[in-house]
Amino acid sequence: MEAKKIVTGANPYMPLWEHVPDGEPRVFTYNGETRIYLYGSHDTKKTDYCGPDYVVWSAPVDDPTNWTCHGVCYTASDGGDLYAPDVVQKGDTFYMYAAENRGSSIMLVTSKCPWGPFENPVKTELGFDPGILVDDDGRVYAFWGFCESHAGELNDDMATLKKETIRHHIMGHSKPFWIKEDDGHVDPVDGFFEASSPRKINGKYVLIYSKRYEYPKPENGVFGSCNGFLSYKWCDTPLGDYQPGGDISFNGGEVITGPDGNGIMTYQWGNNHGSLMKVKDRWFVFYHRQTGCNEYSRQAMVEPVDIAMGKDGKIYIGKITYENGEPVKSDVVEATSQGFYLDGLDAYSIISAGYTCHMYDGLGKPMYQDNAEGTNKDKRVAHIQPVYEGDSSPVVDIQSGATIGFKYLNFGTEGASKAELTGDIPAGFKVSVRIDSYDGKVVAATEVSEDSKVVSFELSEKITGKHAAYFEFITENAEDRAIFDTFRFQK
Q1: Torsion angle, CA of 332/334/339/344, rounded to 10 degrees?
Q2: Which domain holds residue 356?
Q3: Which helix (H) or strand (E) holds 100?
Q4: pTM
Q5: Could you tell me which residues are beta bridge partners of residue 90?
Q6: 176 to each of 57, 213, 215, 295, 444, how far by Cα in Å?
Q7: pLDDT (tens digit, 9 = 90+) per residue, 189-206?
Q8: Residue 10 domain-assigned?
């Protein structure tokens, strides 16, 4: 009997039981092998952000779906919680900037190996969410801040700043509700929030950061304060005046168009942190999303991005619009389930529902309400249940009218004729399979006559090639909730 293959390394690309947010990726060559390394904070407390240790994950650039955990590389010297770190290499040494005491004390620790252990902590002069750039000439620059952006050049000790180079408010910041007065540095349109991450791309200095919107962005389904975006600004010099760039990613899931023409996010947005990295010949944005009903079990995500240079010298990053061959606009890339599987996930393998990028209730409103306050649980809307072991994380609290979607699956040339879903489906649910969009063509439907752990489908037509797939759940009992664990298609 043929063994059933399980999809791993999709999106999120680490195992579904691992919760590493705030990851700023690096590509290092060590002992002749070039790998992607991900250093992030570590959501292990479950009832609050992060935890007391960092772990390191890596994957070969030739197979970025195959991730290896190297274990704990650093534990906080004060026993407290570690927030977002950054790691750079200079010479034969790897420098980690560990954000101890919830990011209020930045410690420099070093190793001769990219996965540590990192040792010998030295307190730096940097602040919250440090991001480090080693320039081509060997000079090193640091960026940091929370609702204020700061930068400067580091001395050779990699811990202290050259005082004459320090720039405060290198870009305008957002004005969340807790900042009562305008300090003269507020940028109401393109304001910095946190998560500084500098990169040098095509000769330009690019600062990736978390933007907090304080005004509506209806095309993305945002109608109030929201800091689920990773954005960028650019400059011709590392410590110069950074120019407007745009948004790169948004962790609100697939954005669909509502009946009023505005966008509807189909995932619970939350804080965001990450960066850009070139893997072989392709650029990617690394970010994170939330699971559960709060921001304490986040997962590392990735999407490919395009990068182009305009005639005016501006750099465009994300989903780029061209006119007459010239870039004129960039916007957020789409949220997917496939991650590094750019040809789509193998539709014939077992796929966890935890890879969904779309959870829509069908009622014209987002699948979350004030997620940071934990009211998802009270309102019992569909969400991914955090897990800390095993190969799958189910979508729970699925109510009537909901669609759970995956972008994208590869059905090959022979095509699929059957499908199978596992979970806990109460009697009376009708489960349908739609293709290409949440309201797309129904290719299968099954009435569940009794409480079921497995639901089987016969497709009305062969499905070939690459498609998005959506599972729709409908019942006349408005109080019933379904659990969706895994699915697979069959030939």
Answers
A1: -150
A2: 345-490
A3: helix 100-103
A4: 0.95
A5: 93
A6: 34, 9, 11, 18, 47
A7: 889 999 999 999 999 999
A8: no
